[in-house]
Amino acid sequence: MTPQEYVEEVLALVERIPPGRVMSYGAVADALAEPSGRASARLVGNIMARHGSAVPWYRVVSSAGRLPPGHEDRARALLRAEGCPFKGTAVGVGDGGERVDMSAAAWYPDTSR
């Protein structure tokens, strides 16, 4: 898989995340690891930062449920509108004191496509 094909696969997968659900950067990388030969959460983050504006970028979060850096307020509003569950007690830098409840909101694709 070429680098451009990998970008396209990442974006296609993000488009499949259902409303109100999320995937972590690492889960996206893991889901595409076998067909692509790549398994880097950091690479997925870079792809989302550079190319993710046309897909529901706010549905990709850290494995701890932190929202995309620099876009926390917008992501929170969009996810709340979709009914995504949040945890609100832990205060973290830049996350407004709340994170996505990963145990309730994490989604992983059916690999049978």
What does this structure look like?
This protein is mainly α and 113 residues long. The protein has one domain (3-105): Orthogonal Bundle (Arc Repressor Mutant, subunit A). The chain has five helices and four strands. It has helices at residues 3-16, 25-36, 41-51, 72-81, 102-105; strands at 23-24, 60-61, 86-87, 99-100. The strands form two sheets. Strands 1-2 form a two-stranded parallel ribbon. Helix 1 (3-16) packs across helix 2 and helix 2 (25-36) crosses helix 3. The chain is globular, with a radius of gyration of 13 Å. The model has no long low-confidence stretch (mean pLDDT 89).
CATH architecture classification name: Orthogonal Bundle
Residue runs with pLDDT of under 50 for 5 or more positions: none
Task: List the secondary-structure elements in sequence, H or E.
Answer: HEHHEHEEH
**What's the Cα radius of gyration?**
13 Å
* CATH homology superfamily: Winged helix-like DNA-binding domain superfamily/Winged helix DNA-binding domain
Helical percent range?
40-55%
Distance between the termini: 18 Å
Shape: globular
Report the major sheet. 2 strands, parallel
Strand order within the widest sheet?
A: 1-2
